[in-house]
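<backbone_tokenisation>
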Amino acid sequence: MTETEQQILTLLKQQQAQLDALLLLLRQELDVLVSRDYLALDTLTGEKTKLLSEIKSTDDQLATASGLPDCQQEAWFLDLVSALDARLEECKSQTAVNQQVLEQSQLTLDRLKNDILASRGKSGLTYTSKGKPAIENKGGGIKA
């Protein structure tokens, strides 16, 4: 294996480790979303952003590697890229699950907010221009 091929192999393995770490973070994110630990969610979001930046940097290094066109025909390269594609699909699938959990949490919070607004006083319940329920404050005090 030439030095260029070795460099590309190293970058591919680095990217595989980064995608493994991303998948782990996404699974941790799901646990945090389910437990509603929003402080931990902020931390995970920062880590995820940093890791995505590193993945992009590694991808850019791969794209500019000098012997890349020659390696793209090699069996070892195709096998590694196939494994990376599979891991990327896992990450996309986990992201979709996390998004669905987050949307469901948001819907639950909206329903709770609407119930609270409705219970505060049906006579003052109005709707905003976007169709969201709101309480209209009537009676700001006595004016003489």
